[in-house]
Design a protein that fits this description.
Structural class: alpha+beta
Shape: globular
Largest sheet: 5 strands, mixed
Strand order of the largest sheet: 4-5-8-6-7
Strand content: 5-15%
Radius of gyration: 22 Å
Distance between the termini: 19 Å
């Protein structure tokens, strides 16, 4: 966990950077992407807002994002990392930009599901969404059988619970961390050689993520449901993957499978955030206005700043940033989810500013107001 030093050292400042600053706003989730060609890297005009999205359901929120300044700006908080007494600057972007949009590779998708060839990608995703519950239940009721040998060869033996044959996980995903991709501190980073294991369905990931390693051919399951009841074990292929933050990968998988942005925000934000925060960013026809959203963000950030110590606020920031980094690294371009992440990011940065007693910074971070009202921030670090 990222820990503060003392009230005097935990301070925040906002600063602008020049055009040659890190194009990924200090959170470059992929070492290979940072050296990619100009065609695959975000340009200066693309920084600070979303573009090339697949889902346009957050249209109003895009208007807010497109109106921002194009020069990326940062906040620097001074924190103390675990096991150290030395204050360290923690530099966070004011906004989490998205890398350039990439299309899903149709040949890889066809390789994992031949029926996907004749279906438009948006229709195919909708079809998968109908089976989301059953896919997730199948993953939850499967387990890897421990082996005294190397547990991560080409395949592993697994035990399946009761499930429909079509819903059997196709792969065991072995997720490894890559320190080159970790541009900000993790509260509890896993050892570099340790893999986190997840049951997945290849077609769900391939249909939603544009930057994936090619999955190994899945094993065929020549079983009947009655045979599965007699012997619920079989071999499943291992699919290796490197991401910035394996410790936050389960939340990312939940996003890919469920695509439930409201649920995501309620899972990540404590103390029941105001409804305007949850609804306004992800709904074009929301009954809430921008002014409603602004007031809700200010009120909710003040509640969080009064209720949680700075290390716990740091942890909340990490969870959102790690989710963003994993999604961006694997090319998950769901516009509604990124609108929700952006809203949570605004809330938590303002919370941190208030928790460290920097009311002026909190005022600067406040979303653009249409009514000319003052922020009314009155949280002081001494209250904590």
């Amino acid at each position: 966990m990222v820990l503060p030093s003392d009230a005097g050292q935990n301070s925040g400042t906002a600063d602008a950077v020049d055009e040659d600053a890190q194009a990924r706003a200090g959170v470059s989730p992929s070492g290979s992407d940072s050296e990619s060609s100009p065609e695959s890297s975000p340009t200066q005009s693309e920084l600070g807002y979303y573009h090339g999205t697949i889902d346009d359901s957050a249209g109003r929120w895009n208007e807010v994002l497109n109106s921002r300044e194009l020069t990326p700006r940062y906040i620097t908080f001074t924190v103390v990392h675990p096991g150290s007494s030395i204050p360290t600057p923690w530099r966070l972007p004011l906004h989490l930009p998205r890398s350039q949009h990439q299309e899903i590779n149709p040949s890889i998708l066809a390789a994992v599901d031949s029926t996907a060839v004749a279906v438009p990608i948006h229709a195919y995703r909708q079809k998968l969404a109908l089976d989301t519950y059953y896919f997730r239940q199948a993953n939850l009721h499967s387990r890897v059988i421990p082996s005294s040998d190397n547990p991560l060869l080409n395949s592993v033996r697994v035990e399946l619970g009761r499930m429909v044959l079509d819903m059997i996980p196709t792969h065991v995903l072995a997720v490894y961390p890559d320190e080159r991709m970790r541009q900000f501190p993790s509260p509890s980073p896993p050892p570099p050689a340790t893999a986190s294991l997840f049951f997945v369905h290849a077609k769900v990931l391939v249909a939603n993520c544009a930057r994936l390693p090619i999955p190994p051919p899945q094993l065929h399951f020549p079983l009947t449901e009655s045979e599965l009841e007699v012997d619920p074990t079989l071999d499943i292929k291992v699919w290796n993957m490197v991401v910035p933050f394996p410790e936050a990968f389960e939340m990312f998988l939940d996003c890919v499978y469920a695509r439930d942005t409201r649920r995501l925000m309620l899972l990540l934000l404590p103390l029941s955030p105001e409804e305007a925060i949850v609804i306004y960013p992800i709904s074009v026809d929301s009954r809430y206005t921008k002014a409603d959203f602004t007031r809700a963000v200010r009120a909710y950030a003040a509640r969080l700043a009064r209720s949680y110590p700075i290390p716990e606020i740091n942890s909340l920031i990490f969870k959102v940033q790690a989710l963003y980094a994993n999604a961006d690294a694997l090319g998950f371009y769901d516009n509604t989810m990124f609108a929700a992440i952006d809203a949570m990011w605004q809330v938590l940065l303002m919370t941190m500013a208030l928790a460290t007693g920097d009311v002026n910074l909190a005022e600067e971070l406040s979303p653009a107001r249409e009514d000319g009202e003052s922020s009314g921030f009155d949280v002081d670090a001494s209250e904590k």
